[in-house]
Amino acid sequence: MNFEWKQTTEQDLEQFNNWGKKDLKIQKFVDGKNLGNKILEMVENIGYDSGVFRVRSVYDNDVLVGVCVVIINKATKKSRNTLTLYNIVVNPELQNKGYGCAMMFDIVKNCEQIFGFKPRVIKSYVDKDNVASNKMHVNAGFELDKKLNKKLKKGKNIHYEKTLN
């Protein structure tokens, strides 16, 4: 797969809205809103490329494959240069074809080029019922954040972490 990561555009957001109409998992995430509007809602107060959120659209040969939203936590006493994968969403017509895994591997390998930030740790929170996403994290070398999972044991998410070199 030959990915090109781009700044998310209004046209991308319109396509994301259409995806939400086709896919129940996306509908669950957006909670009655359009995906594009949900992403805008998350970043509108601080902008697409603020110090906290980064939103990137992913293309493969001019076909919009997906979108990734991350949260960047620069070095503080608590965050230790962490990038948190907030969402990776794959076009419903391309799901179960390896695009999500390929996106994840590309993020791990080329995070600085994609998001303009070189993290020491990548964290992710995954719905425990999302089998494909949990498998994708394990395949990309993420490990369970046992301390956080134990602390939040009654939650609906599984917490993963990957330390980079």
Give the gist of this structure.
By secondary structure, the protein is of the alpha+beta class.
Summarize the structure in words.
Helix 4 (99-115) links the parallel strand 4 (82-90) and strand 5 (121-127). This protein has 165 residues and is of the alpha+beta class. 29% of the residues are buried. The chain is globular and about 40 Å long. It has a single domain, classed as Aminopeptidase, CATH 3.40.630.30. The protein has helices at 10-22, 24-30, 35-43, 99-115, 131-139, 146-151; strands spanning 3-7, 53-60, 63-73, 82-90, 121-127, 143-144, 157-163. 37% of the residues lie in helices and 30% in strands. A seven-stranded mixed beta sheet has the order 1-2-3-4-5-7-6, with helices on both faces.
Task: Describe the structure using short key phrases.
6 helices, globular, Aminopeptidase, 165 residues, 7 strands
Q: What is the strand arrangement across the widest sheet?
A: 1-2-3-4-5-7-6
Amino-to-carboxy terminus distance: 24 Å
Overall 3D form: globular
* Alpha carbon gyration radius: 15 Å
Number of continuous helical runs: 6
- As a percent range, the share of strand residues is 25-35%
* Main sheet attributes: strand count, strand direction, barrel closure: 7 strands, mixed
What is the CATH third-level topology name? Aminopeptidase
Derived structural class: alpha+beta
Poorly predicted ranges (pLDDT <50, ≥5 residues)? 45-50
Mean pLDDT: 78
Q: What is the CATH architecture annotation?
A: 3-Layer(aba) Sandwich
What is the CATH level 1 assignment? Answer: Alpha Beta
Number of DSSP strands? 7
Compute the number of structural domains: 1
CATH superfamily: Gcn5-related N-acetyltransferase (GNAT)
Helicity, in percent? Answer: 25-40%
Order of helices and strands: EHHHEEEHEHEHE
**Oligomer category:** single chain
